[in-house]
């Protein structure tokens, strides 16, 4: 029984360690957008809507496929696994109903893209936050 507890605890440690930093949904510090819900974020990143709640055009900037922060972001906002997300985009692309967001190289590149475009929205680990961006939503 004691050994089983160790096996379970050891099995959970990698998941707990990989999600150490929280995820921040960000826009440029100059953006007029000041708040957003997780559902609105999911709708923007899944090409269901093309605007912020304010009516301004939204340009989602994604993290690379295979990135742990990307996987966690879509699980927390859209409730989609990697496999479900891939199938979702294949369907939209095949039917001509949508295209996935522009993909940046990493969190720093997402931040730079957001800073340089007042319509851009992205997500990064909270340890990358600085005064150049505004956090709209925190995903614990």
UniProtKB/TrEMBL annotation:
Keywords: Signal
Signal peptide residue numbers: 1-20
Protein name: Phosphate ABC transporter substrate-binding protein
Organism: Noviherbaspirillum saxi
């Amino acid at each position: 029984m004691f050994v089983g507890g160790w096996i379970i605890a050891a099995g959970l440690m990698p998941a707990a360690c990989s999600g150490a930093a929280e995820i921040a949904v960000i826009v440029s510090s100059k953006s007029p957008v000041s708040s957003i819900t997780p559902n609105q974020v999911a709708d923007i990143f899944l090409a269901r809507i093309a605007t912020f709640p304010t009516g301004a055009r939204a340009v989602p900037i994604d993290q690379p496929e295979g990135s742990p922060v990307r996987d966690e972001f879509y699980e927390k906002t859209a409730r989609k696994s990697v496999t479900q997300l891939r199938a979702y985009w294949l369907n939209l692309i095949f039917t001509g109903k949508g295209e996935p967001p522009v993909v940046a190289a990493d969190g720093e590149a997402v931040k730079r893209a957001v800073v340089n475009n007042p319509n851009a929205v992205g997500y990064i680990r909270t340890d990358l936050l600085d005064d150049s961006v505004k956090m709209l939503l925190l995903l614990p």
